[in-house]
Amino acid sequence: MLIAGARGDIQFADPAARRWLRQFFGRPARVGMLPRRVVRWISKYDARNRRRSLVAQTTRSRLYLKQEQSYTDNSLVLLFELIRGKSEERARRHRSLTKREHEVLFWLIRGKSNAEIGAILEIAPATVGKHLERIYPKLGVENRTAAATYGLENSNTTLHA
């Protein structure tokens, strides 16, 4: 996680965020500032692009940056998610999802909560949580945001409810 001022000055960044910024974007032009590519992406951010992530990649991993709502006009909040492994490898694991896991991922991508997915699929919210626990390692991700991002990127070939 990272919190920055409106002009890109870093106010807080956890150690992983700092390490990943250097690894994927290089050293910023000025110490304590976001890299130029990140600042450009933020400047294009608006309500229509709210669901879009900035993706930086190396041969073995991808870094997703997602801007979250801030409670002040003077700061912005960025969430980071690192996904390791080649995309072909993730796609192979993705195909190993069960029919029900595909259904859960389909609704997750559409922003539904576990309770809403459970109601739609007529299963308990706890069961939805268990499906998600099995989906994450198959996709090579750690949380629902990364799973939804991965699913959005690959929805044209693999997801149908």
3D architecture notes:
This protein has 7 helices and 5 strands; from the N terminus they run ββααβββααααα. It has helices at residues 15-25, 36-43, 87-95, 99-109, 114-121, 125-139, 144-158, and strands at 2-5, 10-13, 54-57, 61-68, 75-84. A 5-stranded antiparallel beta sheet has the order 2-1-5-4-3, covered by helices on one side. The model is unreliable at 157-161 (pLDDT under 50). With 161 residues, it is of the alpha+beta class. It is elongated. 27% of the residues are buried. Helix 4 (99-109) crosses helix 6 (125-139) and helix 5 (114-121) packs across helix 6.
Task: Note the main attributes of this structure.
disordered C terminus; single chain; alpha+beta; five-stranded antiparallel β-sheet; elongated
List the helices and strands and how they pair.
Layout: E1 2-5, E2 10-13, H1 15-25, H2 36-43, E3 54-57, E4 61-68, E5 75-84, H3 87-95, H4 99-109, H5 114-121, H6 125-139, H7 144-158
Antiparallel strand pairs: 1-2, 1-5, 3-4, 4-5
The number of distinct helices, counting runs of at least 4 residues, comes to: 7
On the 0-100 scale, what is the average pLDDT?
82
Query: Tell me, what's the shape?
Result: elongated
Secondary structure class reads alpha+beta
What order do the helices and strands follow? EEHHEEEHHHHH
Q: What is shown here, in short?
A:
The protein is of the alpha+beta class and 161 residues long. The protein has 7 helices and 5 strands.
